[in-house]
Structures are given as structure tokens and as C-alpha cells.
Amino acid sequence: MTTATPANPNFLNVFKIISSAKKGFLRKKVNRARRENVARGMAGQLDLSMDSMEETRFKKRNQYLIQRLEKRLHFTYAEIECLLLIYYKLWKEGLVNNPSQEGVTKVQFRDVLHCALDMTDDSLMDRVFLALDKGPSSCISMETWATAFSLFLRGTIEEKIQFCFSVYDIMGDGILARDSIFQLLRTSLVSQSGEEDAEESARDMIEVITKKMDIDRDGKISYADYKQSVLKNPMLLEAFGQCLPSRQATFSYLTTFTSTGSTM
User: Locate the EF-hand domain: which residues (predicted)?
Assistant: First the structure.
């Protein structure tokens, strides 16, 4: 009678480790898929004014873009779906007058920012667009659209500091010199209260703001100066003109496509 050779203990240990790791990987994969399916199921049809089949095709066509955006934006998968559906409907409206339109135009986007987000400083709007999308196209992509709303509605203070400075950095050299600051303040004051006394008021404001924000006293405001000043006093974030939505507009717009209007 032959006796069975006992299994190598080392082999058994390795086998158990591999089996355990494989089970853990499969469990995480299943749980992730379950969470995504639950989110999609809870969302149901997002827009009752759109044909359900058309909405389903849109979701399926853009699912990989949405997954990619979900990893880096401050929105859930379902919220990004809603944002992109808004984009899609605006695009369809534009196609009525221009069948060759390739997306939401910057004019349409400007109207959304003006009417929905209370961004009414037209003097800075071109700079806002340039900071968001430096491309030459008259249209913005779905990715730029979603990224912009992530910044405007739930952006961190660091993201907003970087964005606002890029809007104000007219020369693109990372420095806000006195001439640039004067131009920004004067234009902003003219748009708010008219031409009269705007120049004199701008010069007075330069002295006050520069004294507060020029940390190293070199006569100009660097990005480091600006960031340090804003982190110390957030009220200085839009010192040179409005380039972000108001808090009330932010909350109101969030409630149109999220379960809560909470911001980060």
C-alpha cells in the first residue's frame, strides 16, 4: 500500500495567498460595478423632456468620458451625466440655426454664465474663456464644460486662486504689475458705475490693494503674493473683478441637477 506524499507547506501558503488576493480583487470589482449600477438605477431618466431612447444612447455614447471626468472632478457619475445632458440640449438648440455647429458655442456658454451663475462682468468674460479654454474654436468641448462647472460650483480654494490669477494675469508672465492692475480695476469700475471718476478711483484702489497683497514689497503682485494674501483673507479672491459665480447663484444652480446644493 502506497502512502500519499504530503503537500509542500510553502506551496500551500503561496496558493492561499494567491487565492485570497484573487477573491479580494473580484470582490472589489463586483462591489464597484454594483455601486455604479445602483447610481445609474437611482438616476433613472434624467430629463423627462427628452426621448428616453435618445437619452439612453447619449449616456452610453459618453460613458467612458463620464468615468474619466468622475475621477478628477467634484461631481458624481450621475451629476456629470446631468451636466452633459444640459450641454447636449444647448448644442441641439444651436443646430437649429447652424447645422454645422460642433458643440456649445462660447456665446451660448456666456449666456449660461450670465443668466444662471450671475457672472455679469462682461469686461472680464473674454479673459474667463481664455483661462478655461485656450483653443481657437468658437465652441467649447463637453470636457471643458464639465471642468468649468466643477470649478465654479465646487472648486477648492486653491483651484479658484489659480483660476482667478490666470484671468487677471493679462500679460501671461505670472506677475500682476501696476499697469495691469490699473487696467483691470478701471475696466471693472467702468462696467459697474460708468466712466466718470473710474480712473481716479482705480488709482486710489491700487494703493490700497497693493499694500495688502504685495507681500515682498517689490512693487508687483506675484502668484505667491496673491495666493498667500487670499488664503489669509478670502475676500481678496476677486479683488480685480468678478470671475466666479455668486454664492447664491452657485447654490441655486446646484439644486437643478443634484440631490443637495452643497458646495465644497
Answer: 201-236
